[in-house]
Each structure stands twice: as C-alpha cells, then as structure tokens.
Amino acid sequence: QKKSCRLSAALLGEDSEISQEQLYELLEYAALGKCHHAAQPSWCRIYHQSHLAGVVVVVLHEMSQLHFYRFYLQFKHLRKVFRHRFTLAPSNFPVSLYGEGTNLKPQNTPQGLTSTSSESITKSSDLQCDPIIQRYGEKKQGLTSYTLTLEEQKKNDYPIEGSSECKGYISTECDQQRTDSSPLFGLDCEMCLTAKGNEVTRVSLVDARGQCLLNELVKPESTVVNYRTRFSGITKKMLLPVKTRLSDIQTRLKKMLPHDAVLVGHSLNSDLQALEMIHPSVIDTSLLFARSEGRRFKLKFLAKAVLGKEIQCEQKLGHDPTEDARAALELAQFFIEQGPTKVAELNLEMLLTAEKLAEVSQNKAVLQPQGCGFQEQLNEPPPLSKPCFLDCLQMTGQKPLLLARQGLDSSGLCQSNLSTSNKQILQRALEDVPLSKFSIIQFSLGPEYLASHLHAGLYEKVRSKLTDMLTIYAGPFEENFCMKSVKKEFGRCGPIQSLTVVTETFQPYVCIQYEVLEAAQLAVESLNGAEVAGSCIKVQRPVTAAMLDCNVLIKELELDVENEGVIYVAGLKKSLTETDLQEEFSQLKDLETLFLPKDLQSGKHRNCCFLKFQKIQSAVDALEAINGWTMKGSELRSRNALAPGHLWRWIWQMNHSNGKQGKHIFYEKMEQLSDSEQDLRKKVKKLDHHIKKLYRSLQNNTLCVVLFPGVN
Length: 712
Prior knowledge:
Elements: E1 6-8, E2 17-18, H1 20-32, E3 45-47, E4 54-60, H2 65-70, H3 76-81, E5 87-88, H4 93-98, H5 124-127, H6 131-136, H7 150-155, E6 170-171, E7 184-194, E8 197-206, E9 212-217, E10 224-226, H8 229-232, H9 236-239, H10 246-256, E11 262-265, H11 268-275, E12 277-278, E13 282-284, H12 285-288, H13 299-307, H14 321-345, H15 348-367, H16 374-379, H17 389-395, E14 401-404, E15 415-418, H18 422-432, E16 438-443, H19 452-469, E17 471-475, H20 483-491, E18 496-502, E19 509-514, H21 517-527, E20 531-532, E21 535-536, E22 538-540, H22 550-559, E23 566-570, H23 578-584, E24 591-595, E25 608-613, H24 616-626, E26 630-631, E27 634-635, E28 637-640, H25 645-657, H26 675-697, E29 702-707
Parallel strand pairs: 2-5, 4-16, 4-29, 6-12, 7-11, 11-13, 14-15, 14-16
Antiparallel strand pairs: 1-3, 7-8, 7-10, 8-9, 17-19, 17-22, 18-19, 20-21, 23-25, 23-28, 24-25, 26-27
Helix pairs in contact: 13-14, 18-26
C-alpha cells in the first residue's frame, strides 16, 4: 500500500507512563477516526488512520509489569515485536473497556453520537431551516468559502487596512492570494484591563497540526487595572519578570506567518484588536457555526458538542489560550472536512437546550429535600451522558468481538465467545479477528497462578533479583584503604544508592548498590582488574541461584527494541543543567532526545543521562566518541542502555518500597525453583507463543495493543 499506518510515540524516561485517558484516546481514534469526530491522541500520533485494517487489544488477565520482568526471557516474542512500551498508571481501564459495572466516559466522544433515536436525527426537510445551511448551502466547499469577506469583517469589528480606527496598527503583510490548500493557524489571546483598555497579556499560535508555535506572556504598556485572573489566568506575579512587549509579539507573528496564512479563532476580532494587527484572511468559529438572530455558541460548548473535548474546565485557573486556539482550529477543520450538512445534522441547538435542561435538573436534584417532589423529578429530562467506548463502536455499525474465559461483557455490546482454555481462545481469534474491526482477546494463566500469596512471592523474587543486579562487590583492599577514593571511582559509573564495607572476609571488600542497571554493568566492565585505592581489585555481582542467568538477561536487555539507539552516559557533574548537556552533546550526529534521570523524592538530577539517537549507527559512533570525553573537568563513561525509562522508574520504586534495604550474602545456598514457578514459566512461554501466532495472523496495518492490567 502507498500509505501504511504508523504509530509515532517518542517518549523517553519519565514520560513513558501514560494514563487511562491517554490509552483511551489512542484506541478511540484508531477505531473511530476523524470521520466519526474522534481526535488524534494528545501524546502520540497515528498516521493514515483511514487505512487501518482493525484494532486488536490483547488483555493478559491479572498479569502486570511484575510478570513481564519476572518472565522477561520467556516473553521472547512480545518484547522483540512490540516497539512501544508504556507503564499504564493505576486504573480500572480493562473493566471499563468491556462495559462491566460502569461505563467509561470518553474524553473525545462527540455529543452528536449520544443517541440513535429517530428524534435526535435531523430530518432533511428541517435542515433547510438551519442557519448553517441557509448561510453556506448543503455542499462541502474549500476553506476559502468560509473566510470572512471584507464586508463581514467590517460588520464584526475586525481591524481593516486604511481604517481611521486602526491608525498605528501593524499589518501581517500576508497579502498572497488564498487557495483551498492555504495553511490554517489557530490564534488566541488573553487580555487584562489597563488604563488604556483591553491589552494583551498572553498570546498563543498553533499550526494546522495543533502544534504550539507561540505561547508567550506579554507586558502591557499601561498600568493594569484588573488582571481578570478568573478568565485570563494571569496574575501580577506572573507578569513581574516579563520583558516581552506587544511590538515584540507583532514582529514575531509577522515572521512566523506565511504570506497565504489563514487565521482561525473564536471571536478573533477581539484578539486582533488587542494585538493591534491587521490580517486579511480569517475564519471566525463563532460565526462559522451560525445561529439565528445573531446569537453565538460559546467555544466551550462547541468543543464539547462537536469535538467531544472538555476545555476551560472550572478546576483550572483561567483559560488556556493554546487550548482555546487549538479547539477553534479543530472546529474549523471539522467544518471544512465534514461540510455544512454534517454539521447541521449534529443539531447543536437541541444539544444546547438539552444541556441547559440537564443543568437545571441537576440543580433541582441538589436543592430538592429528600422524599419530596419525586413526580416532578420523573418528568425532568435525563442529563446528557456520554456513551461508553463499546456504545460508540456500535453506533458506527461495528460490533466489537470479545473472546475470553469468562463473561466479562455484561453490557451485551460485544459478540462474546466464552472458552475454557487459552488454546480455544486462540483458535477462535484466528477465525474471527479478521472479520472484526475491533477485537478484545483475553488470555489468562488460570486461577491457580493468580493467588495473592503467589503474587507476593513473585514480587519478592523480582525485587531481590533486581537488587542483586544493581549490586557489585569490589576487593580485596588493604586494611587501611581510602573509602573516599573508592566512592569517587565507582561513583563515576553512575548514582550510588549505598556503599558498605564487608568485614566477614580475610581482607576488606566493598559492597556497592547502584540506582541504575547500567552503572552496575559499567563498573563490572570497566573496573574489574583495575587499580583502585592502591589495590588491584576484582569486581563481580553476587553469586546466587537467581543470578546464574544474569549475563543472558543483560544481553537480552541490551538488545531490547526499546534500547535501540539509546546510550547511557555517566560521570556528569551535578551542577550541569539539561541546557548545558544539550549544548555539550549538540555536536553528536542525529541526537533526538536527552533524558536526565531525577530522584523521584528530592527532584534532583543524577550524575548520569540517557541519549536517544535517530539511527542505531549514530548511537554506536557516539559511544566511541564519548568514552574518555572530559566535560567540565569530569571524565565521562558510557555504554549501551539496558533499562527503558519505565523500568528505571519501577526499579526505583521497588528499592524504596521496602523499608529496609536487602542485605547481600556473597554466597547463597543454591535453591531449586518451586514446582509452581517452573509450571508458570512453561505457561508464560506458551502464552507468548499464542501472542506470536495471533500477531502473525493479523492483516497489515492492524493496531495491536497488549495490556498487563494488574491484579486490582
């Protein structure tokens, strides 16, 4: 295919945790797309969604990140094929997805899809009376058909070139002929009341993809009379350090806007007046979504009713101009792409009336004494509620497929097929998934492997093994060796969590526990056989039964797809900021991202960082170049990355969740694996094989998501 679907999600380090809402955004856009008014996810991007063959969600029942890393070697296919891996913040997402017990309320579901009853579908004859149809007709047109004419601009108080009222105003000089492919830009300003009148205090500009190009605070020329903090979000404290003036913003906007730019905003005339700028081509969404008798819909209502987005939330202090600019832009894009008829069919007037009635009903319910007015409450229309995810799919003619061991779908919204084993589920999936646009496949290890005591045992084994992998023993040293020298030398490999002297041996050894896996591995690789504190030392990890496959695990972690093109750099001075490092490493070719780990309690950054490169070869070249570099008097050490950001965070939490640090014994009794864990490894390996078989059977351009939802 010429256009194949791609998922782009460049998150590194602390950003690798996503919320339930973010996962929902991804699935909703993948399943519904723009034609059903779903918006691109805020945290990643799906390219060519219309070419998607389907969406498959594989749920590994009651398994979590704990299982993934305990059986990391067994999940051979899963970790090699799935390139994007994120920690899902605690949520009830899988249950909500099935529609069991409670419906998930999506963030971006259009209100126009809340009902399929005959009353909510506007009849063709009624459309002729709709102000939108009367103004624009029924046929779809290009964007130039929706820009305001000169007369309309004059009528709606837009700054006009040559007008006596606009003396001293600056022109954007965007005087090129507009076409239907001219670029759209969303613009919004926040104003304060000054002695002069309304003056700009914040400006936001977004491009056609919703990317923020400008978000700047502006110092008013005159004394501020009222900051209007409730609406503007601006306070006196915020403006104190600001040096930017209106003239600076005017200059920047002139440079940023191409000569055929079309500005989009909601009541954009007030923004341009406050900016004291003239622009010839505008789309005003307060006029675009036409109403009778000169009334206008509020931006907040349109964003919710048309885009399914909540903006200008009461919890926030003031409006976010970037959010408003993006909402206005998306509204204009929706109108242009869908055309007047589709917009009229949303029946916005009815939705607004229903919303107001719902608010009245809600207020009455709050004020109504208990046991009174029951009949009146029955007569009130029910408040508008957004549909759950499965509702939305059904309304688009898609009945999701659910294959599981037990009846998770109590809503009746899925084609449910219950099976008694993972093998049966797989067989049904191979037959039925190609026929469904949205499938939920649930595999389970079985109730005998999900008991709480087994889970607790797994947790302790994983925590213990990670602790051992983070720990090294160094020695022997002379009796009166310098501990400061040892700490300094080993500290160059990365952040140290603890450093203790082992006194049970004939000569002293030092036990060092690091905070990141790369630091421990770097110490083993670079300091074994080196001379430290006057002694030629040996550096090794603890010898335990669990550590016998440590080298295999390290190698597999290094080859993990998530670590491709990522290197670890240690020996940084803590005084260096992220900006300093960006500058120092700027000469490295194809550098994409720099991640500076921070202590999750103190917020202070560590003496190490991770660098992600666009190409694997560039990472290899950087590795050679960096080793031996001196930065601000400190020698750098580096190696390939071992732990993705989510694993780094998880290790940190595990190390700090236990009140006392685990003590390390140099030699431990070799223990045989329990029968139950041996069985569990076999089960996990078979599960990975099932996922491999299912994955290989999927059509090209299928989005596949695997969820480890956890126990609770």
